[in-house]
Known about the structure:
Structural class: alpha+beta
Largest sheet: 6 strands, mixed
Mean pLDDT: 97
Number of helices: 7
CATH architecture of the largest domain: 3-Layer(bba) Sandwich
Shape: globular
Radius of gyration: 19 Å
Order of helices and strands: EHHEEHEEEHEEEEHHEEEEHEE
Number of domains: 2
Amino acid sequence: xxxVSLPYEDLERLVGVPREIIIDKIxxxxxxxxxxxxxxxxxxxxxxxxxxxxxxxxxxxxxxFLSIEEGAKYYRVYDSDVELNVDDxxxxxxxxxxxxxxKDVLFTESFIESIMNLQEHLHKGLxxxxxxxxxxxxxxxKISPPFTYTAVAPSFGFVPLDFDEEMSMQEILARHPKGMxxxxxxxxxxxxxxxxxxxxNVLSFPPIxxxxxxxxxxxxxxxxxxxxxxDPIVFKALNIVLSAIYERGCNLYSVSIK
Length: 258
């Protein structure tokens, strides 16, 4: 079962009560406290509660338990003029995609760490190690819509995350740590999935790696989020990520898929 690290500073700020109260109530959410550290709490959650795989999700649940916030939460989603076009070539490979835009985000180092950890917990659990779903978060300011979800030849190249040189997709699968770990998911296909912007920039090579171009940093103010996969569970995963980010404060926008 997933063990989620919950920094006290984030918990206290998001919930609005002292850590002692939070620590006392967490087991009542059906969770087991694994470790109590000086600056954080490590908690094991059941696999059927992926909404609790982040400090944001846990804070939302505790606020409900303490009657700080009651009832179903309302999420305002604004329309946008951004479109994502899906090419028929990608359908046999990873047929499902869910996307959204988030604006007016105020990222901190701990916020980024929390969302990236949530992403990996979802990859392992709901995503079955990225086979059923993979999530990509991108700095929207670095790319130009409309976007295209398509499939390309293994010789197609871009600069992957954490690298400073362009590599072909074939090279990424052979040399990049993520490629070597997850490349078997694509071993039976002649073409590989890719998400491109309007001028040909690569956002993502799902389910393997994002592009270095769209790296999320503390300077990022807006996000384009994609969840691709082989199962409709991609929509659930997107909702979990969006609701977690929403706890920190942001505006959510829809994207038209064609």
